[in-house]
Design brief:
The chain is mainly beta and about 140 residues long. The chain is built from one helix and nine strands, in the order βββββαββββ. The chain has one domain.
Length: about 140
Amino acid sequence: MAKNIVQGGAWIRFDVDNEAIGFATGVNYDENFNVQPVEVLNVLGRISLDVTGYTLTINVDKFIKRPGNQDIINKIINGERLVPLIDEVKATGSIPDRKLTLIDTNINQATDEFEKCVLTSHGKQVNANAFLTENMSFEGLKRVS
């Protein structure tokens, strides 16, 4: 078994609360602005477009944990699990919010940062002759860069 992960092509390092967690071969996010057109009687056309809402969804696909890191499902960050158990969510009534940072490994710079992100889904894939990979989705309050 390989001792280190050999990077090839485009990889994104995935950081949670400023802690490097692992690498992802696919990351996408969608920002949606709800826009309401304003129309006035006896005026041809719209007079403005008003923003009435905003949503942010981040998906991390084919995530591979950083060598030496514990399994992501058991990872403790700031005293709380990254992927909480359902009993923990029931006891607290919430899922911890996180700061997510995407780092381009080719230039070692942050490409995007998101604040107040909450894990909404997590899955694990095991395939023959491949690394164990995980997928995660988050909802966030805002993209800051």
